[in-house]
Design a protein that fits this description.
alpha/beta; Rossmann fold; 2-enoyl-CoA Hydratase, Chain A, domain 1; 411 residues; 27% strand; 2 domains
C-alpha cells in the first residue's frame, strides 16, 4: 500500500492506495527550501528607493495582509517589515487583515494597531478606478499615505492566479462592490475577473507590494518588492514554472484534496480546486474529493444555482449571457457530474451533498475508494492530487506515431 496525506481543514487525512494500481502522484516538484527568505525580503525593501522615500514621508502606513498557505513565514516577514518601517518612518503603522489572513500575534509591535476588514461592517470609501462599477474600499487603506500589500501569489484553477491579486479586490472591498464584481456581469469572461483585480490594484496611489511564492509550502521564494503590476508580472512566470506538473496518462480514479484551510472551508471555495483533478481523470471515471467544509456550503448564489437542479447546458447559457462567478462554480460541478461519479469526503450533512449538490457522500477516502473500485473494477488505475489548490495540472496528449507498415504505404 502507498500512503499519501492530504490537507483537510486544519489537519490532514490519509489516502491509502494499492501500489500496483497507482498511476501517478500529481504535485509540483519541491525545490530546496529558501532559508534566507528574510534576508531576501529585507534586501528587496532596501533596494526600492521609491518605497524608502515614501516611508520617510508617510504619516500613516497601512500594511494590507493577504492570504498565505503557511502563516509562520508571512508573520516573520511582517515583523521584519515593521522593523524596516520603524527605522525610516515616524508615522503610525496599521496592519489591515483581509479575509483568511494569518492572525497577528498580540506581541507584534504595531503602533497603529491591527484591524480586521469586514466587507459588511467596515467603513469604506469610494475610489476612482477603471472598474465599471462603484469601488468602495476600506477607509483606513484608502486614507493611508503609504500602502504596502504583503502576500503570496499562487495558482488558481479558474482565475489563473490568486492571493496577492485578491488583497485589494475583493479582500478590502465592501460587500456591494464584491457583489458587483462577481455577479451579473454582461459581456465579461472568466479571465477578465483576474485582469480587473490587477487593474484596480494598479490604479491605487502610493501602493507597493511585497510579494512571493511558496513553492515548498514552507518558506517564501521569488521575493519581489515594487509597484502592483510590476510585482505581479515578476511573479506570474515563477508561479507557472514552480507549480506546473505535466502528465501523459489519465486515470480511472482520481483522489484529490482541495488544499485544507482556507481552501476547503466551504464547498463553494473547495470547488475551485476541482479542475486539477478532472484534468487527470478518464471519461466516465470516478473522482474522490476531500474537502472538510467546516463552514458549510458557503456562498448563497452557489447554493441557489445548485439547488435549482438544472442541466449544465442551461446554467452555462445563463453564464454566457451574464457572468456569475459563483453560478459558474455550480455549473462546473454540474458538468463534471454529467461525466463522472464524484464522492465527497467532508463534514457536510449527507442530505446537502446528495440532494442539493448531487455528489455521493463518504466519511473517509478509504470507504469511498472501496465503493469506487467495486464500480470501476479492482484493476482500475488511480492518480492522486494531494493539493488541488497548489497545482497547475498540464495534460500532454501522447503523440500518435505511424507504424512501419503505415510509413511504407505509398502516399
Amino acid at each position: 500500500m502507498v500512503e499519501v496525506w492530504l490537507p483537510y481543514g486544519g489537519s490532514e487525512i490519509p489516502a491509502r492506495l494499492p501500489a500496483e494500481r497507482l498511476l501517478d502522484i500529481l504535485r509540483p516538484e519541491i525545490p530546496p527550501s529558501n532559508e534566507s527568505y528574510l534576508a531576501d525580503a529585507t534586501s528587496a525593501l532596501e533596494k526600492n528607493d521609491q518605497l524608502v522615500a515614501a516611508a520617510s514621508e508617510a504619516k500613516q502606513t497601512c500594511v494590507a495582509l493577504g492570504t498565505s498557505g503557511k502563516p509562520e513565514p508571512t508573520l516573520a516577514i511582517i515583523h521584519m517589515l515593521l522593523e524596516f518601517l520603524a527605522k525610516r518612518s515616524k508615522g503610525n503603522v496599521v496592519i489591515l487583515r483581509s479575509q483568511d489572513s494569518p492572525k497577528i500575534d498580540q506581541n507584534t509591535p504595531v503602533h497603529g494597531g491591527v484591524v480586521d476588514h469586514d466587507s459588511h461592517s467596515s467603513l469604506t470609501i469610494e475610489v476612482q478606478t477603471s472598474a465599471p462599477f462603484p469601488m468602495h474600499l476600506n477607509s483606513i487603506f484608502v486614507n493611508s499615505d503609504l500602502k504596502i500589500a504583503v502576500g503570496e501569489l499562487k495558482p488558481h484553477n479558474l482565475l489563473k492566479f490568486e492571493g496577492l491579486t485578491d488583497i485589494i479586490l475583493p479582500g478590502l472591498a465592501s460587500s456591494a462592490t464584491i457583489r458587483s464584481h462577481l455577479s451579473d456581469r454582461v459581456g465579461l469572461k472568466l479571465e477578465d475577473l483576474y485582469k480587473e483585480r490587477a487593474e484596480v490594484g494598479n490604479t491605487i496611489p502610493n501602493l507597493f507590494v511585497l510579494g512571493y511564492t511558496l513553492p515548498d509550502g514552507i518558506n517564501p521564494a521569488d521575493i519581489t518588492c515594487g509597484r502592483f503590476q510590476e510585482s505581479l508580472m515578476a511573479l506570474e512566470g515563477s508561479v507557472h514554472d514552480r507549480f506546473t506538473k505535466s502528465f501523459t496518462k489519465k486515470a480511472d480514479i482520481v483522489v484529490i484534496g482541495a488544499g485544507g484551510t482556507p481552501n476547503d472551508a466551504t464547498l463553494s471555495r473547495a470547488i475551485e480546486a476541482l479542475p486539477a483533478g478532472l484534468s487527470a481523470l478518464k471519461k466516465n471515471g470516478s473522482l474522490i474529493f476531500a474537502a472538510e467544509c467546516e463552514n458549510g456550503h458557503g456562498n448563497g448564489e452557489f447554493y441557489e444555482w445548485s439547488a435549482e437542479g438544472k442541466e449544465a447546458r442551461y446554467l452555462e447559457a445563463r453564464i454566457h449571457r451574464r457572468l456569475n462567478y459563483n453560478g459558474l462554480k455550480a455549473s462546473l460541478l454540474r458538468r463534471a457530474l454529467d461525466a463522472h461519479r464524484i464522492y465527497l469526503v467532508s463534514t457536510l450533512p449527507d442530505h446537502y451533498v446528495e440532494s442539493i449538490f448531487r455528489m455521493r457522500a463518504s466519511r473517509s477516502i478509504s470507504a469511498a475508494l472501496q465503493t469506487v473500485q467495486r464500480v470501476q473494477g479492482s484493476e482500475s488505475s488511480i492518480s492522486i492530487v494531494p493539493n488541488g489548490s497548489r497545482l497547475i495540472a498540464e495534460f500532454i496528449e501522447p503523440q500518435k506515431t505511424e507504424s512501419f507498415q503505415e510509413q511504407a504505404q505509398p502516399r
